[in-house]
Amino acid sequence: MKTLVTIGRGGTGKSSFTALMAKCLIEAGAAPILLVDADPDQNLAEMVGVDLKEAGKATMAELIVDTFIEKGGTMVGVSPTERIESRLLANGLYEGEHFDFMSVGTKWVEGCYCMPNSALKAALEHLTKTYQYVLIDSPAGLEHLNRRIASKVNDIFEMLDHSKKSLDHAKRAYRIAKEVDMQFDNFYLVGGYRFPAELGSKAEETLKFKYLGKIVADEQVDDYVLNGMSLLDLPSVNTAFASVKSIMKAAGYIHQ
Ligand SMILES: Nc1ncnc2c1ncn2[C@@H]1O[C@H](COP(=O)(O)OP(=O)(O)O)[C@@H](O)[C@H]1O
Ligand SMILES: [Mg+2]
């Protein structure tokens, strides 16, 4: 099992990149795949043609509140991890033909809820073992990811745009990952659709992370997103999709 996380500033193209990585892995026959939307905007679902509400599924945050805070009561002999895992399986996991999907959600209770957080993390660690790939769209910061979702991932993809702030974001994200003791194998830079291609090698030199390439700006992608269409249905010849394929190739995930 490999866990791939996409991070970066808002609007850089993280969710569409995550959706296109999924398309790439699905076409390469790499099922089963789990997509995890950790974005409060929750737009990854739409980008892969999932409607959680319609499917009767709840977010992890809703299930946490429901299981530990509203229901509260004890279930003798059932650990918090087992409780949340069975709720996730029954009420949170969307099972599609080519991939499964879960959303973290927004309704998170802040404060000292260490028990639900660590129960969720342990449940996810167990539940994700059955997948070949877990893709996480994670704009909220690696410290949150580390606390609630996963403290061990394989690749972190930092999405860059044309602003200096996005280079600062990359530096800060890397520092935080180290500070919170997040385990990972690779920290990669990816040029978002607005990133100037010629700055790739400069970003690599300044930041000292491997630059995998840039996502091509493509009107059809923009159009699909605007109209709420699934990016998985883009034609295989789409230029943005082709650029994501070559990024996946540079990261060693696909071979042709
Ligand atoms: N490759 C692309 N080419 C053109 N427009 C894109 C591309 N990727 C994303 N967009 C547009 O940029 C906007 C933000 O993309 P999104 O993936 O939601 O970013 P993020 O998740 O980082 O906030 C979307 O409205 C989408 O239409
Ligand atoms: Mg997003």
Report on this model:
- By secondary structure, this protein is an alpha/beta fold.
- It has a single domain, classed as P-loop containing nucleotide triphosphate hydrolases (Rossmann fold), CATH 3.40.50.
- The protein is built from 10 helices and 8 strands.
- It has helices spanning 14-27, 44-47, 60-70, 80-92, 114-127, 142-149, 164-179, 200-207, 219-226, 239-250, and strands at 2-8, 33-37, 94-95, 100-103, 133-137, 155-160, 186-191, 210-214.
- The chain has an 8-stranded mixed sheet with strand order 3-4-2-5-1-6-7-8, sandwiched between helices.
- The protein is globular and about 60 Å long.
- The two termini are 21 Å apart.
- The mean pLDDT is 92.
- It binds adenosine-5'-diphosphate and magnesium ion.
Features:
binds magnesium ion, Rossmann fold, 256 residues, binds adenosine-5'-diphosphate, 16% strand, alpha/beta, 8-stranded mixed β-sheet
Topology diagram in text:
Elements: E1 2-8, H1 14-27, E2 33-37, H2 44-47, H3 60-70, H4 80-92, E3 94-95, E4 100-103, H5 114-127, E5 133-137, H6 142-149, E6 155-160, H7 164-179, E7 186-191, H8 200-207, E8 210-214, H9 219-226, H10 239-250
Parallel strand pairs: 1-5, 1-6, 2-4, 2-5, 6-7, 7-8
Antiparallel strand pairs: 3-4
Adenosine-5'-diphosphate (ADP) binds next to helix 1 and helix 9.
The ordered string of helix (H) and strand (E) elements is: EHEHHHEEHEHEHEHEHH
Give me the number of helical elements.
10
As a percent range, the share of strand residues is 15-25%
CATH fold-type name? Rossmann fold
Specify Rg, calculated over alpha carbons: 18 Å
Q: Count structural domains.
A: 1
- CATH class, anyone? Alpha Beta
Give the overall form: globular
Major pleated sheet: 8 strands, mixed
Average of pLDDT:
92
End-to-end Cα distance, whole Å, is 21 Å
The total beta strand count reads 8
CATH architecture: 3-Layer(aba) Sandwich
